[in-house]
Amino acid sequence: MIPLTPHLLPLTPYTRCILDGRIIVITSGKGGVGKTTATASIGAALAMEGKRVVVIDMDIGLRNLDVVMGLENRIIYNVVDAVKGKCKIKQAAIKDRRIENLYLIPASQSDNKNVLSPEEMVGFREIISKEFDYVLMDCPAGIERGFENSVAAADEAIVICAPEVSSVRDADRVIGLLYARSITPKLVVNRIVPEMVERGDMLNHSDVVDVLSIELIGLVPMDDQVVVCTNTGMPLVLQKKSLAGEAFRRIALRINGMADLPIEVPQSQSRFWKKLGTRLGLGK
Question: What structural domains and CATH numbers belong to the chain?
Fold first, then answer.
């Protein structure tokens, strides 16, 4: 069994650069903005690009990532077992049967949120980063122990924010905490309803970006297919009719090196047909 003795030294730029895989925490501060869906979707899309990917549910006591991925019936070990050295990483990592190179390490439902420490997570990261190209951690809501553990193991962060005032405020708080830990976050604005934006009933994504002042890597529209895929355990990016799935796929491509890939702004059907008519000379 591989020992998981905590590495108590701070993570310096040098120690970060020698680690093999990229470890990305997906966070928000506020619950209910789509972190779990984003983690599963981005992870699946990266695996479809040929990368070896593991997604980790860090919400100890309240796991959901396994259900979203349709892997809840195959759990034997969990992230607490892996970090504590009760099992090997390959024993805790559940392989997805539909997407090659995609794995899940679920959270524990029987432990409390204080069962792991940031120091233990630092030791864990040095091992798991050598096993995978990408490690995506689904951070629990809030800024307490679950957040501290997730951030301790990460060197990159993606902040998921809904176009709502409360979500933006919580995201701003989290961004400040990430900067304090020398992590420069990137932004995904999720659950955009173009019709509401046009009516002025929902924040425009540009306003969200102006307030938060971090790099935008994706805009994701509200999509009924998210609920359908969550209930059936189907990866959203495998649903060809899903606008949200396509948006997450493009986010994964940007993460994987296609930084110049344009960010598509979700549009309402009326706006789409108006633009098309203008291009065809059918209207002003």
Answer: 13-279 (3.40.50.300)
